[in-house]
Amino acid sequence: MEEKTGTLETLEMKQLFGNIYKNKNVLVTGHTGFKGSWLTLWLNKLNANVYGIALPPPTQPNHFDLIDNKIESYLQDICNLSIIKKIMHKINPEIIFHLAAQPLVKYSYQEPVFTYMTNIMGTVNILEIAKTLKRIKAIIIITSDKCYENKEWIWSYRENESMGGADPYSSSKACAELITSAYRSSFFNSPNSAIIASARSGNVIGGGDWANDRIMTDIIRSANTGKPVKLRYPHATRPWQHVLEPLSGYLMLGWKLLKGKNEFSGGWNFGPTNENNVTVLELVLESKRNWEKIRYDFDKKENFHESNYLMLDSTKANKLLNWKPVWNFEKTVKNTMHWYKKYYENNTVISEEILNNYILDARYQKLIWCEK
Question: Closest Cα to residue 269, out of 103, 144, 368, 175?
């Protein structure tokens, strides 16, 4: 595909997602995290009134602090029901994107109670408070591809597969899905109720992620320090995608829910195409093609359990939402490496440039969410 250039100012952001987010009160929980910070950046460009509730950024550096993000930020624990209720009533959101979570598999082994409290009771708190909000129209609970009971098969998981998990993180995300379904059926079942959906993405990569025990963070540290990245499971297959891919899906889903289209409630997969389902080793090798400083080695010691095969089937989103990914595997890795190289070699943060290029590529492909 040919390269395209442009600026955010020339993209007429108001045309994206039917201009649905302009002047809407939008709450993003977990806004200081990797995905949350990218989502708030995009919502700002859509002229939404953006609010965030989260713990302080989990790493230094972090993407949230690096971008010029004009939002009203509340640094609070979502497990504190009384405080979160006061904040949410003050915000009075029309749509909630719930991303706040303990997001790491390895850390869930070290801190299972914190993981379950945050991922389960945090979700309960958001839904419980949402019952009392006057303007709320839509709620999207973001879980994970790991919410599915992993049977180590080579087929992709669809939205109607059983939920489960062999580790605290995965099982907590499965519980969040069950809780969301129960609240939808029990408390949000009248014609005037907010519409609730859940969304599951693949393994997201992109600039600005420094979380521990993530392969991309390890790759970047290798390039920066010269020390080889230790590959625990080099042949494990994952659905790699750029962070902007599922975010476009969440925003597209929110567009439908804010329009009052109840048929778009329920669970949704926003995963990559099959060509992006590749091994950890293939990801490292592709990254090395874009940044020659990267080195790797194999970790031969016994590690905690992780699944070998995990792939998502996004046919439902493809057919019913007309959503599809924009970037292939090579372009996903290229844009990720480009962000980090600019940061480490030029002390420059190019998140807006990456977002701009993503939208331009989507327009070139005539995707429905960016039609003029």
Answer: 144
Q: 337 near 219, Cβ under 8 Å?
A: no
Angle, to 10 degrees, between the axis of helix 168-187 and the axis of helix 122-130? 20
Local structure of residue 148 (DSSP, 8 states): B
Mind listing the pLDDT tens digit for each residue in 119-154?
999 999 999 999 999 999 999 999 998 898 887 777
State pTM to two decimals: 0.94
Contact between 204 and 343 under an 8 Å Cβ cutoff? The reply is: no
Which residue, 209, 236, 235, is CA-closest to 220? 209
Query: What pairs with residue 348 in β-bridges?
Result: none
pLDDT tens digits, 316-358: 999 999 999 999 999 999 999 999 999 999 999 999 999 999 9
User: 156: which 2 tokens?
Assistant: 């992709």
The domains located in the chain, with CATH, are 8-370 (3.40.50.720)
**Which neighbouring-strand residues pair with 98?**
29, 141
